[in-house]
Amino acid sequence: MKEYTVDGVSVRSEITRDVIVPESGQRAVSIVSSCPSERWGTRTQGYGCTFPPNHSEFAVDLELARLRAAEMLLKVERGELPEGGLRVLGIEVFPPQGNGIRMIAGVNLATPATLLGPEILESPRFGFTRLGKYTLQNLDGSMAEAPLYGVRIKYGSYDIETYAVVSYHGSPACILGGDFFQKILRGKEYLIQELVADEHQRLLATAARCKKRYVLLAGSYGSHRGRLDGIKSALRSIGLVGLVLDEYPDIEEQSLAEKMVTYAAVSRFVIVDDFVPSGHIDELAICHERKFITAVLRLGGRATTAMQADLADDVTFIKEFAYAGDDELEVTALQAANWANGAVAERAKSLNRRYSAWRSPEKIVRG
């Protein structure tokens, strides 16, 4: 732990991780910097750096890294750098044979090739295969030849064969090129059309897609959190994706209630695990008020508060599903999803007929 004074502001710097990474053999250090903040009370920001395992100037370079991290923190606080830091992707890079190397990646569509440092591509321990040479345009506009290698990159569910060149670009360790994204988007060209559309049009198209298969899950986030994970797993078996609010970041201008309404509005329907009293009681009231299609799962048919025992009475958009024991929770969730899917489809038909003066197949947003 150290204290730095940068431009008259006290910044606390803490080393939270100092390890040798097995995949690369590099020494990885994680730094957490914090300073007073008018916006947050205390602003905290992480910073990572790597060094050769036996680096003779480690102490000097680490000191420079900690000072750089402190300076970046203050620039973010002052609005000189974007809130939340630079956007990067967590990926795995694979040679033709062998294990993957986890790293963070930036994006540069100006070059089709992915850029990786020589310590990765040229190291015999990883076994990357050289394909030939590649003409690369440097940042200053000059042209240079660089060795070309075949690589496989995994990001989330994507597993892409592409090519990479040796680059001395610094951090982040990998810069994903245009060929990687072209292969990801093959067959999804509509996403390119959305990308060049106005932002509100992209928002509508994304919301329409979410309405087809995403389900908001509400319940207790504490010791009973595993129940929500079980419901997510059950929904996955029928092609639906369960969303739990605490897994997603906040929009700072929104209250928690607004966040819930935002996610519920773009979800196909809502499933509430009414098992123990928690914040979901307020969320259920919101679902009733906003007429969100909502399935309520209740052990033995008993509500966690008598004030909501009659919530599903006299309405068609909320339905209670009773079950006898925990072993029936996931089966009951599937029954609830089946009902909710049907209710959503019927609502869409009804609204299309009711709003026929404004709606038509040509005017419906295609998700």
Describe this structure as you would to a colleague:
The protein is of the alpha/beta class. It has 3 domains: about 1-75, no CATH class; about 90-185, Acid Proteases (Cathepsin D, subunit A, domain 1, Beta Barrel); about 200-355, Rossmann fold. The chain has helices spanning about 60-75, 120, 180-185, 190-195, 200-215, 225-235, 255-265, 280-290, 330-355, and strands spanning about 1-5, 10-20, 25-35, 40-50, 90-95, 100-105, 115, 130-135, 145-155, 160-165, 175, 215-220, 240-245, 270-275, 295-300, 320-325. A 6-stranded mixed beta barrel has the order 5-6-11-7-10-9. Strand 12, helix 6 and strand 13 (about 240-245) form a beta-alpha-beta unit. Helix 6 (about 225-235) packs across helix 9. The model has no long low-confidence stretch (mean pLDDT about 90).
Can you summarize this structure?
This protein is of the alpha/beta class and about 375 residues long. The chain has helices at about 60-75, 120, 180-185, 190-195, 200-215, 225-235, 255-265, 280-290, 330-355, and strands at about 1-5, 10-20, 25-35, 40-50, 90-95, 100-105, 115, 130-135, 145-155, 160-165, 175, 215-220, 240-245, 270-275, 295-300, 320-325.
